[in-house]
Structure formats: structure tokens, C-alpha cells
């Protein structure tokens, strides 16, 4: 079926934390509207930009078969929609099922321009679990009292880390622990004895989040619109960009219970928002929230730097891998790419930047700090425009060192800035190993790939060993994802078949890393057959 929506981007005043500011919204809503589709549907979204900022929309986790033209990242697959302009995105849901989300993919606009996508099973098919009575989207986000574009500009000007947010939010609300926020606290109504499907999205800019509901367990049934073997836990971890489908059984006495989330931040010295956002699970018949000092307590959430709690959850998840939901992980690989990921402030060569003490923040992959080109890479590739990007993204780190050693010399810390892509042959089996490094401070990075979902076949702490580690890969039921958290001072290996021709962005979903260059681009070449070729550009592409 075809579904059509209109998104009007505009500035709308919103009040949070006792003050009002104008934020970018879609149709005046924050968070933005939830889109409901079935697997196999095609969705058209007409986006009108009535704001003062350039904007694009990305459909995070949708493969967009042969059609990167509708993928959205600015200067990668399109030029942004300028104020007064419009663009129609065509989004085809081929294999995805569960929850994904959409968000702006220009500057930091995704802070308020985002919403969920609920993808139901194809007509005539069912969930791989008993049908829940109802469902609820829970979007975890962040709120700055200041204008977020100012926060970004200030960080770019000073060369330092951006200021942290003032609160995390659940469905746009900081919750009752914050000033002026009690009345707006989000409430999730449930009836005793029933089971609900929670569609949880981490739309925060810069933080992984632990999430839990007091006295209730969550059964995770899907991540990134791919089903997994049910996993029941007291708390979950969700990284920026990720989506989790979880079943909630309302099996406790009729009452109100806290829903809460707070940051997981492993990097020493990396500033983060150490507050807790709350919402309420409200049983029907339990009365309304009125108490000034709640008798109920917050759920247990691990300490902010509890790496074991984080990896313990993430790595217990396995894909469903059954007959209806088979996996298709490449058993052998044609191309292996090892990419170091790191971020730090470094001393600028030749005083080329104005940061404090002549330093500047940079993030990079294989020591290249990505720079947006003047024309989007997709158009430059399609029309053969020279000089827009280079094709020398390296297959391995430029030099080998003990990436996760405690002290690393300054000489390793000066990246090259550039726009380098990596070409992949159509249908080749690709393995990509993200190697975390301990340059200045290691931290966990949520790495996201556009145009694909991939299998996470292995991970570990320390340095990846290309002889030994692949022997321990899970090729039976590895989770299928579009965003993975690479552990601090460790590595993660993913595999996918390059069967989607086009230009595809890959980046860290911490906005403070994306902006500073922890990005790369794959160009998957066309195959021989007609069905293996990039589609021609749609009419009405915005000009640069
Ligand atoms: Cu969630 Cu490049 O995006």
C-alpha cells in the first residue's frame, strides 16, 4: 500500500524547564508525529521547509533499496532543503519490521526534529510473539535551555566540547524531578493483567541511556526493526540511533510506578548530563498523580560508567533466526576493513585553528576527519563531477600501534581532514571491524550505517586480533542492527552483503562525534542486472 504524509518544518515556541524558546518542529509537534506503516508499504513524505534553517530528513534504519536519493544526510545524498523549499521523500519498507525512527540530518536539528516509525507485519502475517493489547512509543531525548544551534556554533568557534544538555526527556518531557516539569511528566496508562508493546527510541544527541520501569521487567523482542530471541531484563541500554521493541506485562498491584532513564557514559573526563528523566506507568484505578512526595521509588539503573552492565545487556541479545525470520550473514568475506575510531582535542598544526591554546576537537576514522563536500557525494558520483570527494578511505589504520594502551603519544593525535569514500563491489561480502582507541579518553561509540542492516558477529575488549578473534564469531544467530555500540577500549565486528547500490553514510551517532568528523562514506557500485543498479534521481532534488 501507499501512504502519504506532509511534514511542515517550522519554528514553534515550547516551554520546558521554566523557560520558553522557539524550536524546530514538524507540524508544530515535539516530538514529531509517529508514522504507521506495514512491511512492504511505500511511504511518501512531502517535506516543506518553512523555517530559517536548511534541513533534510533521514529515515533511520530504512534500507532504501537502490534509492539513496531519499536517504537524507545533507551533503552525502542530497543538498539540504533551503528555507521556502520542499522535497518529496519516497521510502520503501522492504525487510524492516518493528520500530525505526526519522530525524533531521542537518547540523544539530535532529534535537527536536524527530519521530518514531511503527512498522507492522506485512498484511496477513503476525508478530513472532502474542499480539499485545496496545502499544506506546517512548522517545528518549535531550533538552537544552539554550538555542541548540548556538551551542553548536560556540563549540565550533572555541574548538572545544559542546555544552551538555540541561535534561534528558521522555516523549519530550524532563519529568517530575526537574523544576516546572511535574505537570507535563509523561504518563503511560495501563490496565492490570495486560501486555503492552513499547517502541523505545533513543533520540538523544550525545548519550547512551539506561532505561527501566520500577518493579517491572522488560522483554526485549526486537532491535532496529529486526526481531530477536526474547530477553527479559530489569533494565535495558539503548544507544543514540537505536530502537528497541520491548513487551511490558502490567502484572503489579494497581499503582503508579516510575519510568526512568539516565546516561551511560564510559569516557573518563567526557562531560555528560548526570541527571535522571522520569515518566509514570499509571495503572487504571490507581488515581492521578497528586502526591508532593511520591511514595514510590525510582527503578534500579546501573551506575553511569558501568561498562559491564552495558555490554552484559547488549551482548546477550541474539537474533530470532527462525524459519519466518531467517538470517543471511555472509560466512566468508571478500573485503575486510579495519577502522580505528577516535576523538580528542589535539594541537593544531601551523596554528590553523582558533581553539583554546591552539587546539581543536577532532573525531575520525582511520585517522581521517571527514569533511562535508560542497556538492552531495551522490550527485557528484552519479553525474561524474570531479574533485568533490576522494576514493582513498583506507582499509586499515594508517599505522599500527597498541590502540588501547593507557598512554598514547601526541604524534598519533593529528588527523588528516578530507572527504574520502570507500568503493565496494556489488554483492561483495564485507566485514568491518571498528577498533576503539584510547587517544586521550576512550569512550563507547554508537556506529551507524545507512542503507543496510548488518550482523554483529563479534566484539571484544583490547585490540582486534585478525587471526584469533574471527574464530569466535557468532555466525548462527548474530543480532541484526543498523547501529552498534563499540565498547570503550574494544572492538566490534559487523558483516553485510553489499547488495544495495548507492552512496551510504556511516558515522558515530553521538552528535558531538558526527559534527567533528567520525564519519565515512561507502559507495556500493552497480551490479550487472537492471535490478542491481542505482535508480535515477527523482524530480525536484534541492539545489546546493
Ligand atoms: Cu540516525 Cu546518519 O543517522
UniProtKB/TrEMBL annotation:
Keyword Metal-binding among record annotations: yes
MF terms (GO), sorted A to Z: copper ion binding; hydroquinone:oxygen oxidoreductase activity; oxidoreductase activity
Keywords: Apoplast, Copper, Lignin degradation, Metal-binding, Oxidoreductase, Repeat, Secreted, Signal
Coiled-coil annotated spans: none
Primary site of residence: secreted
PROSITE patterns: MULTICOPPER_OXIDASE1
GO cellular component: apoplast
Keyword Metal-binding: yes
Cofactor notes: Binds 4 Cu cations per monomer.
Cofactor(s) the protein requires to work: Cu cation
Domain of life assignment: Eukaryota
Listed GO biological process terms: lignin catabolic process
Residues covered by the Plastocyanin-like domain: 10-122, 136-286, 393-527
EC number(s) per entry: 1.10.3.2
Catalytic reaction list: 4 hydroquinone + O2 = 4 benzosemiquinone + 2 H2O
A Pfam family reported for this protein in Swiss-Prot or TrEMBL: Cu-oxidase
Location(s) in or outside the cell: Secreted, Extracellular space, Apoplast
NCBIfam families: laccase (TIGR03389)
Role summary: Lignin degradation and detoxification of lignin-derived products.
Family of this protein: Belongs to the multicopper oxidase family.
Name of the protein in its database record: Laccase
The species this protein was found in: Nelumbo nucifera
High-level lineage: Eukaryota, Viridiplantae, Streptophyta, Embryophyta, Tracheophyta
Amino acid at each position: 500500500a501507499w501512504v502519504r504524509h506532509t511534514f511542515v518544518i517550522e519554528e514553534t515556541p515550547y516551554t520546558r524547564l521554566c523557560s520558553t524558546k522557539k524550536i524546530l518542529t514538524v507540524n508544530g509537534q515535539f516530538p514529531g508525529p509517529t508514522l504507521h506503516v506495514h512491511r512492504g508499504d511505500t511511504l511518501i513524505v512531502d517535506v516543506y521547509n518553512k523555517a530559517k534553517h536548511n534541513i533534510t530528513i533521514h529515515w533511520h534504519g530504512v534500507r532504501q533499496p537502490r534509492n539513496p536519493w531519499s536517504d537524507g544526510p545533507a551533503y552525502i545524498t542530497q543538498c539540504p532543503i533551503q528555507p521556502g523549499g520542499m522535497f518529496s521523500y519516497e521510502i520503501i519498507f522492504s525487510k524492516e519490521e518493528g520500530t525505526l525512527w526519522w530525524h533531521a540530518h542537518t547540523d544539530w536539528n535532529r534535537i527536536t526534529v524527530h519521530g518514531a516509525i511503527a512498522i507492522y507485519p506485512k498484511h496477513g502475517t503476525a508478530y513472532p510473539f502474542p499480539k499485545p493489547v496496545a502499544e506506546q512509543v517512548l522517545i528518549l531525548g535531550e533538552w537544552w535551555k539554550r538555542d541548540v544551534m548556538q551551542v553548536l556554533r560556540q563549540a565550533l568557534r572555541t574548538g572545544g566540547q559542546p555544552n551538555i544538555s540541561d535534561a534528558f526527556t521522555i516523549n519530550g518531557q524532563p519529568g517530575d524531578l526537574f523544576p516546572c516539569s511535574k505537570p507535563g511528566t509523561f504518563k503511560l496508562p495501563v490496565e492490570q493483567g495486560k501486555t503492552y508493546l513499547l517502541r523505545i527510541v533513543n533520540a538523544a544527541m550525545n548519550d547512551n541511556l539506561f532505561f527501566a520501569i520500577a518493579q517491572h521487567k522488560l522483554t526485549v523482542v526486537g532491535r532496529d526493526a529486526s526481531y530477536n530471541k526474547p530477553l527479559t531484563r530489569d533494565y535495558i541500554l539503548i544507544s543514540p540511533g537505536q530502537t528497541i521493541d520491548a513487551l511490558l506485562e502490567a502484572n503489579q498491584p494497581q499503582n503508579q510506578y516510575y519510568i526512568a532513564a539516565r546516561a551511560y557514559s564510559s569516557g573518563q573526563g567526557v562531560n555528560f548530563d548526570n541527571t535522571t528523566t522520569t515518566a509514570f506507568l499509571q495503572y487504571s484505578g490507581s488515581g492521578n498523580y497528586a502526591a508532593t512526595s511520591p511514595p514510590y521509588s525510582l527503578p534500579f539503573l546501573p551506575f553511569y560508567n558501568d561498562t559491564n552492565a552495558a555490554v552484559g545487556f547488549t551482548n546477550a541479545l541474539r537474533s530470532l533466526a527462525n524459519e519466518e525470520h531467517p538470517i543471511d550473514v555472509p560466512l566468508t568475506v571478500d573485503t575486510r576493513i579495519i577502522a580505528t575510531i577516535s576523538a580528542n582535542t589535539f594541537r593544531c598544526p601551523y596554528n590553523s585553528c582558533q581553539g583554546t591554546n591552539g587546539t581543536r576537537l577532532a573525531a575520525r576514522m582511520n585517522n581521517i576527519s571527514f569533511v562535508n563536500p560542497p556538492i552531495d557525494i551522490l550527485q557528484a558520483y552519479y553525474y561524474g563531477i570531479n574533485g568533490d570527494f576522494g576514493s582513498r578511505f583506507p582499509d586499515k589504520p594508517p599505522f599500527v600501534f597498541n590502540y588501547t594502551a593507557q598512554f598514547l603519544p601526541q604524534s598519533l593525535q593529528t588527523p588528516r581532514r578530507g572527504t574520502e569514500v570507500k568503493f565496494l563491489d556489488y554483492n561483495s561480502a564485507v566485514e568491518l571491524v571498528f577498533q576503539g582507541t584510547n587517544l586521550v579518553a576512550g569512550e563507547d561509540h554508537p556506529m551507524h550505517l545507512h542503507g543496510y542492516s548488518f550482523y554483529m558477529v563479534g566484539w571484544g575488549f583490547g585490540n582486534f586480533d585478525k587471526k584469533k578473534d574471527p574464530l569466535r564469531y557468532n555466525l548462527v544467530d548474530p543480532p541484526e542492527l543498523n547501529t552498534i555500540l563499540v565498547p570503550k577500549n574494544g572492538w566490534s565486528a559487523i558483516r553485510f552483503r553489499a547488495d544495495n547500490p548507492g552512496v551510504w553514510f556511516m558515522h558515530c551517532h553521538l552528535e558531538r562525534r558526527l559534527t567533528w568528523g567520525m564519519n565515512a562514506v561507502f559507495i556500493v557500485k552497480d551490479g550487472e542486472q537492471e535490478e542491481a543498479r542505482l535508480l535515477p534521481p527523482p524530480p525536484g532534488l534541492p539545489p546546493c
